[in-house]
UniProtKB/TrEMBL annotation:
It is a multi-pass membrane protein. The chain crosses the membrane at residues 52-73, 109-125, 137-155, 161-181, 188-205, 211-234, 299-317. Pathway: Protein modification; protein glycosylation. It comes from Nothobranchius furzeri (Turquoise killifish). The lineage of its organism: Eukaryota, Metazoa, Chordata, Craniata, Vertebrata. It is an enzyme of class 2 (transferase). It is found in: Endoplasmic reticulum membrane. Dol-P-Man:Man(5)GlcNAc(2)-PP-Dol alpha-1,3-mannosyltransferase that operates in the biosynthetic pathway of dolichol-linked oligosaccharides, the glycan precursors employed in protein asparagine (N)-glycosylation. The assembly of dolichol-linked oligosaccharides begins on the cytosolic side of the endoplasmic reticulum membrane and finishes in its lumen. The sequential addition of sugars to dolichol pyrophosphate produces dolichol-linked oligosaccharides containing fourteen sugars, including two GlcNAcs, nine mannoses and three glucoses. It comes from the Eukaryota. It catalyses: an alpha-D-Man-(1->2)-alpha-D-Man-(1->2)-alpha-D-Man-(1->3)-[alpha-D-Man-(1->6)]-beta-D-Man-(1->4)-beta-D-GlcNAc-(1->4)-alpha-D-GlcNAc-diphospho-di-trans,poly-cis-dolichol + a di-trans,poly-cis-dolichyl beta-D-mannosyl phosphate = an alpha-D-Man-(1->2)-alpha-D-Man-(1->2)-alpha-D-Man-(1->3)-[alpha-D-Man-(1->3)-alpha-D-Man-(1->6)]-beta-D-Man-(1->4)-beta-D-GlcNAc-(1->4)-alpha-D-GlcNAc-diphospho-di-trans,poly-cis-dolichol + a di-trans,poly-cis-dolichyl phosphate + H(+). This is Dol-P-Man:Man(5)GlcNAc(2)-PP-Dol alpha-1,3-mannosyltransferase. GO terms for cellular component: endoplasmic reticulum membrane. GO terms for molecular function: dol-P-Man:Man(5)GlcNAc(2)-PP-Dol alpha-1,3-mannosyltransferase activity. Keywords: Endoplasmic reticulum, Glycosyltransferase, Membrane, Transferase, Transmembrane, Transmembrane helix. InterPro entries: Glycosyltransferase_ALG3.
Length: 455
């Protein structure tokens, strides 16, 4: 018995040690399983916590691949401008460089030279424009690239809750229609614009300005971002060092338009950059409640332009510029300013650019259905940047829904266009009531991890 006791004692210790090993193994699962377990425990927060933005947008982006393929296969294509685009670039291919002689089925060519080059490439890729189905898949690719660029902006800012991204992509019939059922040039311009915005966020200002100018060369609406971009360039570099970047933008426009400028410079500028072009009342989305004579009135257009410029000036002076800093001081090189100058944060860049564009949309002489893409992807950011804390999530989503409904009402009605203006006014008011960008110490870029590089 005395010999058996030590044996039993050793066996007991061995069993306890084995049990301890099993316990250690059980509390140290694979890191992937720990993440899945944490995600499952916090599943009710996934749609509301901005930390899960990357996960949600990744799932939505892959869903969009299937959605776009389904739309292309199941929803009939509607011809509006594609054949006209092909006729216009075919004229250039055949040797016509006089812009006044280039036209399509819907009228004369009214887009800058970058449009001609891009749609000439599409002309050849789609068998002279005949293979429309291939063109739809190409535009689906443009859509997916645009979403990646947009999602990257929202991931960098982490301001908008993840559930909102469902409304940014999957829920918008009109945006899918503009991209893959109509093949407008507006999506191409906006894809390049969001590429430029991402470059600005990374501090690549020179390259960003080049891509921005390419976007302008596809469609002139991108100029609505120009006031905000000019403000940011002066903020980052001062007036003198901003001039070379503006010169780069102008040089790109000059080089792209050179063949047409050599043939008929006045004709090219008047057609490609016609700021006074009249819009047809039957297509307006935002001014349907007005009588047609007032819609076409030049004094009404002048009033809208004045309101546009005045609103931009007020935002620049009261919401964007640092309080106590004079305009002369602001124009100086950042290193020579009296107030310590810090580069703009990611949030500030996005807010200024998106607000600049949105103000232009609010006071536009006319908005046509394809113009929705000009600001659609920026609306959630603007809504969640407003200064009205009582504007609850539900009300913000309601505003997004009313805007979507207004753009999907065809033909537009007095009610739909009035609702659109009311929503625009609410967003603009919330942006105005938000604290000035410099009301507190400039925040560090918490999420970018990339320092601005001045080129």
């Amino acid at each position: 018995m005395s010999a058996a006791v030590p044996f039993l004692h050793v066996a007991s210790l061995s069993a306890e040690m084995a049990g301890g090993v099993r316990k250690k193994i059980s509390v140290s699962p694979h890191p992937l399983w720990r993440k899945i377990h944490t995600l499952w425990q916090n599943k009710h927060l996934v749609l509301f916590n901005t930390e899960y933005t990357l996960l949600v947008v990744s799932i939505l982006w892959f869903l969009e691949i299937g959605i776009n393929c389904w739309v292309i296969q199941k929803v009939p294509y509607t011809e509006i401008d594609w054949k006209a685009y092909m006729d216009e670039v075919e004229g250039v291919i055949n040797g016509t460089y006089d812009y006044t002689q280039l036209k399509g089925g819907t009228g004369p060519l009214v887009y800058p030279a970058g449009f001609v080059y891009i749609f000439t490439a599409l002309y050849y890729l789609t068998n002279h424009g005949a293979n429309i189905r291939l063109g739809q898949y190409i535009f689906a690719g443009f859509y997916l690239i645009t979403l990646l660029l947009v999602f990257r902006v929202y991931y960098r800012t982490k301001k908008v809750p993840p559930y909102v991204f469902f409304f940014v992509c999957c829920a918008s019939y009109r945006i899918h229609s503009i991209f893959v059922l109509r093949l407008f040039n507006d999506p191409v311009a906006m894809m390049l614009l969001f590429a430029a915005v991402n470059l600005f966020l990374d501090g690549h200002w020179t390259l960003g300005c080049g891509v921005y100018s390419l976007a302008v060369s596809v469609k002139m609406n991108v100029l609505l971002f120009a006031p905000g971009l000019l403000f940011l360039l002066v903020w980052e570099f001062g007036l003198i060092r901003t001039i070379p970047k503006l010169a780069l933008c102008a040089t790109i426009q000059l080089l792209l338009g050179l063949p047409f400028l050599l043939e008929n410079p006045v004709g090219y500028v008047n057609r490609a950059f016609d700021l006074g072009r009249l819009f047809m009342f039957e297509w307006t989305v935002n001014w349907r409640f007005l009588p047609e004579w007032l819609f076409l009135n030049r004094y009404f257009h002048l009033l809208l332009l004045t309101a546009h410029l005045l609103t931009l000036l007020l935002f620049a002076l009261r919401r964007w510029k640092r309080p106590g800093e004079s305009i002369i001081e602001f124009l100086k090189d950042p290193s020579k300013r009296k107030l310590a100058s810090q580069g703009s944060t990611v949030d500030q860049k996005v807010l200024i650019l998106f607000t600049s564009n949105f103000v232009g949309m609010c006071f536009s002489r006319s908005l046509h259905y394809q113009f929705y893409v000009w600001y659609f992807h920026t609306l959630p950011y603007l809504l969640w940047s407003g200064g009205v804390r009582k504007l609850a999530h539900l009300l913000r989503v309601l505003i997004l829904g009313l805007i979507e409904l207004s753009w999907n009402t065809y033909p537009s009605t007095s009610s739909s266009s009035s609702a659109l203006h009311v929503c625009h006014f609410i967003i603009l008011l919330c942006l105005w009531l938000a604290p000035p960008l410099h009301s507190s110490h400039v925040e560090k870029q918490k999420h970018s991890g990339v320092k601005d590089k001045h080129h």
